[in-house]
Design brief:
The protein is about 0% helix and about 45% strand.
Length: about 130
Amino acid sequence: QLQLVESGGGLVQPGGSLTLSCAASGFTLGDSAIGWFRQAPGKEREGVSCISSSGGDINYADSVKGRFTISRDNAKNTVYLQMNSLKPEDTAVYYCASALSDSYYYTCGLGLTRWLGVWGQGTLVTVSS
């Protein structure tokens, strides 16, 4: 079974840090581009960051640029999202997703329409005092 599982969410104070993990099973994560997305209550899902299959292209939403870092460890079949200087507006359920193998090999994008592979169940990040 193809599966992505997010972990690492929780409650953190503003200005704090969290690292999210996205672990793949049933397929080789290194064969796919991976994106991080988030959805706050009452808001539409938005792209946060992505990394291409090759690892050569990384993109961030303007709202997180300079604060978040995406990385992949193909040996562990895991992608990470390091989140620093967290703000209350970062509060959301965070999802990881894979693109199909013929998509986003050299580059990746944060639009939702091409993330047609596997989606995780989400992990909740709450930034509050």
